[in-house]
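Session log. Operator J.P. requested a structure for one protein chain; no other inputs attached. Running the standard single-chain path with token output.
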Amino acid sequence: MSTENIIVLAAFAVYMVLMIAIGAFYSRKTKNNEDYFLGGRNLGGWTAALSAQASDMSGWLLMGLPGAVYLAGTGEAWIAIGLLIGTILNWYIVSSRLRKYTIVAGNSLTIPSFFENRYRDKKGVIKIVSAVIIAIFFAVYTASAFSSGAKLFATLFGQKQADGSMDTNVYLIGLIIAAVVILIYTFLGGFKAVCATDFIQGLLMLVAILAVPIVAYALMTWDTGFAASLSAKGVQDPANYLNFVKNSDGSTISAVSVISNLAWGLGYFGMPHIIIRFMAIKNEHEVKKSRKIAIVWCVLSLVAACFVGLVARGYLTNQLTDANSETAFIRLIQQLFSGNGFLIFIGGIFLCGILAAIMSTADSQLLVTSSAISEDIFKGVIKKDASEKKALLVGRIAVVAVAVIAFLIALDPNSSIMSLVSDAWAGFGAAFGPVVLLALFWKRSTLAGAVAGMATGTVTVIVWDYLPLMNGDTIYKATGLYSLVVGFALALVVNVVVSLCTKKPSKEITDEFESIKSLDI
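Structure written below.
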């Protein structure tokens, strides 16, 4: 192994040991399910904001999105615009009301239990359906994080393949390391450990994604223009490449493509690992503080991620193919920070920013899945009189089980990070987004409507993305329209129609709904 690889490994080792140490520290403070799954509802503004955004922006922020922009240009930035709009709306519309409502509705610890309490579902139907959806889509989502970690290791430490593909042996080793480290500190410390590590990881991600492209841009344009640098690296028409409404070949970006990319913002309303942070914030004052911090973080990180892809296209000596475009940020760091031990170590710290993005999302996803299985299925349905200790044990076993499934999904080194994230994002957004919004803001919403809408959103995404119904292609491939657009719209309509066709909610439910307006907690 080269000296450069040893130095980078040393930086990784220090970082991972720190994350595990935080998990061990918080394991002593975890005494019950509320501690393990919500941290005792005691998050401060900075921790809540950075934890929510770090758990949101997974490996796709530093790998998937820059890779897409690297290949196609600024036209791919519509995803970032959609995500920014979604982030702002989520923090301003959902955060405060969800926090209050979950406290009033039986001190709900999870999203499924909130649905159950909100609709007074005595049979636990909506809780079971929600928990199953969470387990399915988070297995896919967590797989994207594991795949990001494996690709990071394969790019840094693997043998270069002639066709640009990954070194499969090193990919597997990286996959194992990423899964094991994330499992250890999530298993030990629960929500507090996840939020504490996410706070550190959110800061590290932001520093890395801001510093690296700025330094590269300064070096690249020292004696020439940005457009000239792009032309020198094979970009046919830099003006089209840098145009928001043009493809790199000069054609106009279709309305379907713009709508699909903007629709990513709809997904935020249904992301359990993000909105559960709202439930854990200490008080209303901290919610307002978190909102401002989170939006600033989001603006900076999304703009910088797109900038990474553009700068890498003009700066990198060796151009990337479709197969390895998602390694653009890694290659940029390697080329910038080389030559001596100090620079290599600094580069290793920045590469830890990618690890931070990966780990901060995977740990949150595993924890939410654990809570769904432990709180909502085991303690909520199977064994209602289970002790706190036994429920915690089941939750931790669930963390391991879902991680194993995600590991198996991520075994394919050719899997696309963006594709995996896209599938899971659409599934959650369509299944939970309309239900969350209507549960919070429409008192006429009923249990039957919520369940019907949830089922509609889930089935629509699965049919749209996975079944070859149009001449051997999926509907998504045939139309180019993102399944979240259709799934969200149908789920919303079905929820409203079924609610209006079924019996009105009881006075107990509507009184509770109205009481949220005057609460100051």
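Operator note: The mean pLDDT is 87.
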